[in-house]
Amino acid sequence: MLRALTSTLRFPRPWRPLETRGCSSNPGAAGREIQVCALAGPDRGIAEILMNRPSARNALGNVFVSQLLDALAQLREDQQVRVLIFRSGVKGVFCAGADLKEREQMSETEVGVFVQRLRGLMTEIAAFPAPTIAAVDGFALGGGLELALACDLRVAAASSAVMGLIETTRGLLPGAGGTQRLPRCLGVALAKELIFTGRRLSGAQAQALGLVNHAVAQNEEGNAAYCRARALAQEILPQAPIAVRLSKVAIDRGIEVDIASGMAIEGICYAQNIPTRDRLEGMAAFREKRLPRFVGK
């Protein structure tokens, strides 16, 4: 049993720092719909994926999806990344969902292939080794909410965020993980109600249901959710990165199995953490009554 579990778990890779990247002043530079940013100074370790497709309200088109997949592949290899934030560079919208105008031009076969790509994208987001946070300051509908659901944590603007799996209002059903992740987040009955009705929720309503971790009042800049997401990321930064990543593995894999198997998964993850220098540093810091200095080894 333990051997079978071990063979399917994806553990954090050894620490291998890559070159830090910065954000340019123009998020849409060089025609990129997706920009990868690595923050510096006290925020070093926080990476951001900035979605910037204003002409289509960050709709999930072919180029957009390809660039998101490329960004995730790039960041997955960067062990300096301790937290990843998904945010929008388009005011008033997080992600409006699938690009239905683009999809109208596809054949039935092409639609099936594209939706499979979307499902794969959400799986890659969910499987990202470091904690992920969605900062929802505007509309997150259909595939946009599915993207947020694939993240570990969600923060929304209480009034300006609009969230919902609205596919049934378009003659569709959620096809990028919504029918699976929403019930796991809210419970089966409530998820069915929201999907069957295509209901839209404000950030405040989403928090009341447990769909988002935090709902915050919007600010003049229109980026209150992002500011709260960044503050949340700053709380995660000082913690031991390997322990955080292994905690994510234990939770994500354990929630899908019975409690006995889940306990075995936790034991496997704990065993992976025992030889780390960070565990010894944590014990030493406790003994010496000082803050630990974790390095991810």
Describe it for me?
- The chain is of the alpha/beta class and 297 residues long.
- The protein has helices at residues 2-8, 62-76, 100-104, 108-126, 143-150, 178-186, 188-197, 203-209, 224-236, 241-254, 259-273, 277-288, and strands at residues 34-38, 46-51, 83-88, 93-95, 132-136, 139-141, 153-157, 162-164, 201-202, 214-216.
- The strands form two sheets. Strands 1-2-3-5-7-10 form a six-stranded mixed sheet, sandwiched between helices. The chain has a four-stranded mixed sheet with strand order 4-6-8-9.
- A hairpin with a 7-residue loop joins strand 1 (34-38) and strand 2 (46-51).
- Helix 2 packs parallel to helix 4, helix 4 (108-126) runs parallel beside helix 5 (143-150) and helix 6 packs across helix 7 (188-197).
- The longest helix has 19 residues, at 108-126.
- The relative contact order is 0.13.
